[in-house]
């Protein structure tokens, strides 16, 4: 049994370090998402089935365990179908990887791969009017470091239409300057490692230039948190929620 435990840990490590990074060349965001899925799955096995992380084997990928995990996500964590499907997608990717690595488990893997994804009703895309957007910008305290960062995030989001994950990934090296040294374009690193250049409006470029000068940013990420660490999607969501509450009227 100990050999089986070690085998599972080795396979999972190979899946992340060799299959996903080297062979599939997936984005860091995808790796984070898959990592979180397995962290939750292993935690579920420990809580619901008393299987310690060190005791997990390939047999723990039986369909009944995975179905129980999906129900756990829905009932205990109150996850929406989209989130549940993302977790299942991560597990299915690992199952397909295992079909090449451990063909002796083909029957188990095939049964688990037949688990259907949840139906996800796509809601209509929400949007902000120009007045609502301006109200959020006005709520930013441009005299403070946090307020300037909030305003720059809003300007770039509204100007470029980037995803939040793309916003927090912008580096100083992604800012393309024109002949007079002013920001002209942003090089966006999108999903699937696809890159695109997006032009900046004049007001966005002017504020971005001032932001870089005031905060003396020479390299690294454009947006950081208060302790100069990586700004997260939840951090952006929190700041936007604060602005909405402040200027809701």
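^ Assign residues to that structure.
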């Amino acid at each position: 049994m100990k050999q089986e435990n070690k085998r599972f840990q080795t396979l999972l490590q190979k899946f992340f370090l060799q299959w996903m990074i080297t062979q599939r060349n997936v984005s860091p965001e995808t790796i984070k998402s898959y990592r979180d899925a397995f962290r939750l799955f292993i935690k579920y096995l420990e809580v619901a089935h008393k299987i310690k992380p060190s005791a997990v084997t390939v047999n723990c990928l039986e369909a009944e365990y995975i179905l129980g995990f999906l129900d756990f996500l829905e009932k205990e964590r109150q996850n929406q179908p989209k989130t549940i499907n993302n977790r299942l997608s991560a597990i299915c990717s690992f199952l397909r990887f295992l079909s090449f690595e451990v063909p002796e488990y083909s029957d188990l893997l095939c049964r688990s791969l037949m688990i259907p994804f949840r139906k996800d009703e796509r809601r209509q895309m929400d949007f902000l009017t120009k007045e609502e957007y301006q109200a959020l910008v006005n709520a930013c305290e441009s005299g403070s470091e946090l307020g300037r960062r909030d305003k720059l995030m809003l300007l770039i989001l509204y100007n470029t239409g980037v995803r939040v994950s793309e916003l927090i990934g912008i580096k100083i090296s992604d800012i393309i300057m024109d002949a007079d040294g002013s920001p002209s374009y942003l090089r966006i690193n999108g999903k699937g490692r696809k890159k695109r250049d997006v032009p900046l409006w004049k007001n966005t470029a002017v504020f971005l230039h001032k932001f870089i000068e005031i905060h003396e940013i020479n390299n690294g990420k454009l947006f950081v948190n208060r302790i100069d660490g990586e700004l997260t999607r939840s951090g952006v969501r929190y700041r936007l929620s604060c602005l909405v509450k402040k200027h809701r009227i």
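The longest helix spans residues 2-23.
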